[in-house]
Design a protein that fits this description.
Strand content: 5-15%
Number of domains: 2
Order of helices and strands: HHHHEHEHEHEHEHEEHHEEHEEH
Bound molecules: pyridoxal-5'-phosphate
CATH architecture of the largest domain: 3-Layer(aba) Sandwich
Number of strands: 11
Structural class: alpha/beta
Number of helices: 13
């Protein structure tokens, strides 16, 4: 394997960072017992080898994307200081980097004035958005499609809010007719619109939900934990593009830099259009440090300790790869999308497969042809195993049978689910590996 440039750069700049503190008197430290550490690290390397090759283009299964080398290097560098972004005293430099990094994300959605910060991930970011939503509409319900992330139901439970599931159509998108019936009751306080569902990247019809919101007066939260960055690309279908074009009209948005933003885990982001919601976060803790009159991140975040290193890594990545439509970052996403379109084409032409809905982003699902649903599910598992034996790693998903058309299986009921194959083509390199992926997949399916 090639030498990782991140390691070389880290070795170059860590001493630079340490130099900044070299005027301090030498302090005895416990010292690191090199040999003992060496032994343990050898075990770590051995244990970590027991993984799927998430970094490789032949890993085309779940939502896993390697962090950019700049993010790894910046994260490691900042971690030597290990700042805590819960307060300016704990993470002076990295709090500023967080404010700047979040500003770039907000600008991507066209927001100049907003309230926002990083979180440990999408789940917590959504929880904050729902917590604010609950304060603004006490006693009202949260509605999300049955394809929304599974944590939304749980989050509502934690917050003591009632949750209603809205059916999705045969392409996995929220059924607005069903939503309208629900909001007419006046019981819905907030609608969660998912732009890029986790299972298949479906894009809910945000423009129609916004129309209903104007008529019935509910809050709109966009969960774009997975899909948010697709705001920057132009090679998505017209309906998805219309939804992304209007994302800035939502009341709150969640996007996960640790999904498509090239970051290590521990990096979600929540944004509110109205900065005044900051009033809900007010707390008076004897532990927080108030050496600054600036509003610090701990005052606008539900979580306390958060890695300043995560903010530093995000800031560095955005510096290298700005979040602009014509930039290299957007081009990488567009390649993922193109890879999905291409693989979908191959799957559709192949006799042994049943393609799912046309992918809206870079996630596809497909089933294996068979007389019965049970047989199809069984064969999907076999293809999954046979592909893995070819070093091609896919995922399995349980999805509504209706995604594959009506009457394709003689034992299918309207609400039946089928186990199918799923592939998330998140890496730009998936595009040039499409041919190789297809070669291995068709070998695995040919039995
Ligand atoms: C991944 C995801 C989440 C959860 O985010 P985590 O970062 O895994 O906590 C929520 N919503 C959507 C749409 C997602 O794809």
């Amino acid at each position: 394997m090639k030498q990782d440039p991140a390691l070389e750069l880290l070795a170059e700049f860590l001493p630079e960072l340490q130099k900044a503190f070299s005027h301090l008197p030498e302090a005895e430290s416990a010292g690191a017992p090199r040999n003992a550490m060496r032994e343990v690290l050898a075990q770590v390397a051995g244990r970590m080898a027991d993984n799927y090759p998430y970094f490789h283009p032949l890993y085309a299964g779940q939502m896993l994307k390697p962090p950019h080398p700049i993010a790894r290097a910046a994260y490691a560098l900042a971690m030597w200081i290990n700042p805590n972004n819960h307060a300016l005293d704990g993470g002076r430099a990295s709090s500023r980097l967080e404010v700047e990094a979040v500003r770039e994300i907000a600008a991507m959605f066209g927001w100049m004035e907003y309230l926002g910060h990083l979180t440990s991930g999408g789940t917590f970011a959504n929880l904050e958005a729902m917590w604010v939503a609950g304060q603004l509409a006490p006693g009202k319900k949260i509605a999300a499609s049955d394809q929304a992330h599974y944590t939304h139901g749980r989050i509502s439970g934690v917050l003591g809010l009632q949750f209603v599931s809205v059916p999705a159509d045969e392409r996995g998108r929220m059924d607005v007719g069903a939503l309208e019936k629900l909001v007419r009751t006046g019981e819905i306080g907030t609608v969660v619109v998912t732009l890029g569902t986790t299972s298949m990247g479906a894009v809910d019809p945000l423009p129609k939900v916004l129309e209903l919101s104007a008529r019935y007066g509910f809050r709109v939260h966009v969960d774009a934990a997975y899909g948010g960055y697709f705001k920057l690309v132009s090679n998505i279908g017209p309906e998805a593009a219309e939804a992304f074009a209007r994302i800035g009209e939502a009341d709150s948005i969640v996007v996960d830099p640790h999904k498509h933003g090239l970051q290590p885990y521990g990096c979600g982001c929540v944004l509110f259009r109205d900065p005044a919601v900051g009033r809900f976060y007010k707390h008076d803790s004897p532990y927080t440090y108030f050496t600054s009159s600036e509003l610090h991140l701990g005052e606008i975040s539900l979580e306390c300790s958060r890695a300043g290193a995560a903010a530093t890594a995000l800031w560095a990545t955005e510096k290298l790869l700005p979040l602009v439509p014509e930039g290299e970052f957007a081009a990488g996403l567009a390649r993922s999308r193109e890879a999905a379109v291409r693989l979908y084409g191959k799957i559709s032409e192949y006799d042994g497969f049943l393609p799912g809905p046309e992918p809206e982003l870079d996630i596809l699902v497909w089933a294996v042809k068979a007389d019965t649903l049970q047989e199809s599910s069984q064969r999907a598992k076999e293809v999954f195993d046979r592909a893995a034996a070819e070093d091609l790693h896919l995922a399995l998903a349980q999805v509504p049978a209706k995604y594959f058309g009506a009457n394709v299986w003689r034992d299918a009921q309207p609400e039946s689910k089928v186990t199918c194959l799923r592939s998330v083509l998140m890496k730009p390199e998936h595009l040039e590996w499409c041919g190789e992926i297809w070669k291995r997949l068709s070998r695995a399916a040919n039995f």
